[in-house]
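Saturday, quiet lab. Running sequence design on the C-alpha cells for the scaffold JK sent over.
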C-alpha cells in the first residue's frame, strides 16, 4: 500500500532488524514499556506472529518506509483482538523518534483505517492510547477515530483510552452512540 509519502509493506522475516530498531528503542515504548524488545530474536518472533496473522486473516501490521527508501521507520496496521468480550480491529502505529513530528504516523494510520473500513465496514477499529500520550491521541483523531470513554480498558501498562471508528455500539448498553441519549464521544478540543 502506498500513500503520498510512505510505502507500507507486509512484514517479512528480513524486516526483523528494522522492527527491532523501532521497538528496541526505549523512547518509542515510553508509554507502553511492556512492548520493548530486548534483542533481534524477539523481533524475529514478533514479525513471525505478524506474518501468521496475515496468513490467517489476509491483513495485519505493515512495515512503514518513506517512499524511495528501504529503511523501516515504523509500523502500522490492524489485527484482531478481543475487547470487552467482542472482536475488534486493534489499530497500532509506532515510529522511530527521528520520524516523529512529520505527520508520518497520521498518514499511515489514516491509510490503514480507510483500507480497513473499505474492506470490513461492519467491523470496529479501536486504537488504545495511554492517557498521557497526547501525540498518539491526536493521530487517532486525525485518522478518523473518535474518543469513546465507555470502551476504555486496562492494558498491560495501565489504563488505555479507546478511540474507535464511528458508530461503535456502547460497551454498556449495546446501542450505537447515535441511539444513546448519553453523549459518550469526546472531541480533541474537550481533551485539552
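Result came back. Writing it out in full:
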Amino acid at each position: 500500500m502506498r500513500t503520498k509519502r510512505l510505502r507500507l509493506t507486509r512484514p517479512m522475516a528480513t524486516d526483523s532488524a528494522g522492527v527491532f530498531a523501532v521497538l528496541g528503542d526505549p523512547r518509542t515504548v515510553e508509554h507502553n514499556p511492556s512492548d520493548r524488545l530486548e534483542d533481534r530474536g524477539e523481533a524475529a518472533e514478533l514479525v513471525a506472529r505478524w506474518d501468521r496473522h496475515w496468513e490467517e486473516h489476509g491483513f495485519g501490521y505493515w512495515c512503514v518506509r518513506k517512499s524511495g527508501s528501504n529503511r523501516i521507520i515504523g509500523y502500522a496496521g490492524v489485527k484482531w483482538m478481543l475487547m470487552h468480550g467482542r472482536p475488534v480491529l486493534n489499530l497500532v502505529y509506532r515510529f522511530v523518534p527521528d520520524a516523529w513530528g512529520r505527520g508520518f504516523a497520521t498518514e499511515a494510520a489514516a491509510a490503514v483505517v480507510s483500507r480497513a473500513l473499505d474492506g470490513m465496514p461492519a467491523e470496529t477499529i479501536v486504537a488504545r492510547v495511554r492517557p498521557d500520550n497526547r501525540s498518539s491521541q491526536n493521530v487517532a483523531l486525525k485518522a478518523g477515530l473518535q474518543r469513546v470513554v465507555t470502551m476504555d480498558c486496562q492494558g498491560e501498562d495501565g489504563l488505555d483510552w479507546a478511540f474507535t471508528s464511528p458508530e461503535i455500539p456502547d460497551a454498556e448498553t449495546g446501542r450505537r452512540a447515535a441511539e444513546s441519549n448519553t453523549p459518550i464521544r469526546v472531541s480533541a478540543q474537550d481533551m485539552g
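Notes for JK: The two ends are 33 Å apart (CA to CA). The longest strand covers residues 72-83. Ask whether to fix the surface positions before the next round.
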